[in-house]
Amino acid sequence: MQQNSNRPEKVNEADLKERVVSINRVAKVVKGGRRFSFSAIVVVGDGNGVVGYGLGKANEVTDAITKGIDEAKKNLFQVPLMKTTVPHAMEGKYSGGFVLIKPAAPGTGVIAGGAMRAVLEAAGIHDVLAKSKGSSNPHNVVKATIDALLKMRAPHQVAFQRGISMEKVFNG
């Protein structure tokens, strides 16, 4: 995962909620038959703008999930939120995965499928319109969603950089 300046200052580990996005069984053919191992992609978030993802691989499902959670806790970052939605529309891309995220009115809910839904809910986004285009592979969709969230900019940052008021950012 790429390094970013959106690192959260301090996150209480007890507040983080884990969500398993996908578990994949991989078979390796050896002399005595097939040997199975598992990979799990896991998303963790505090429901208040902090989210991260991790991939764990092990010979047992529970070990793979535990490794994924540990990896996800190392890759946490802060997502800019505006009340219960995202500040602006953004596209994210990773490999064949391509996602579109748009802000929505309060009460809309999370209109997103599968892997995207897990990331957005873990981040604490309650109202959002999202569409996954391209690859439906959960790994690519999660990474594309993370890419879109990393590219988001908070309105107060935009106002400060442009040297204008918050009202002017939204109303032009």
Key features of this structure:
single chain; 172 residues; alpha+beta; four-stranded antiparallel sheet; four-stranded mixed sheet; 5 helices
Shape: elongated
Uncertain ranges:
none
Query: How many helical elements?
Result: 5
* Helix share, percent: 25-40%
What integer is the average pLDDT?
90
What does this structure look like?
The protein is an alpha+beta fold and 172 residues long. The chain contains five helices and eight strands; from the N terminus they run βββαββββαβααα. It has a four-stranded antiparallel beta sheet. The chain has a four-stranded mixed beta sheet with strand order 5-6-8-7. Strand 7 (110-111), helix 2 and strand 8 (128-134) form a beta-alpha-beta unit. Helix 2 (114-123) packs parallel to helix 3 (138-151). It is elongated. The two termini are 35 Å apart.
How would you briefly describe this protein structure?
The chain is about 30% helix and about 35% strand. With about 170 residues, it is of the alpha+beta class.
Layout of strands and helices, then pairs:
Layout: E1 17-30, E2 33-45, E3 50-58, H1 61-74, E4 77-78, E5 90-94, E6 97-103, E7 110-111, H2 114-123, E8 128-134, H3 138-151, H4 155-162, H5 166-171
Parallel strand pairs: 7-8
Antiparallel strand pairs: 1-2, 2-3, 3-4, 5-6, 6-8
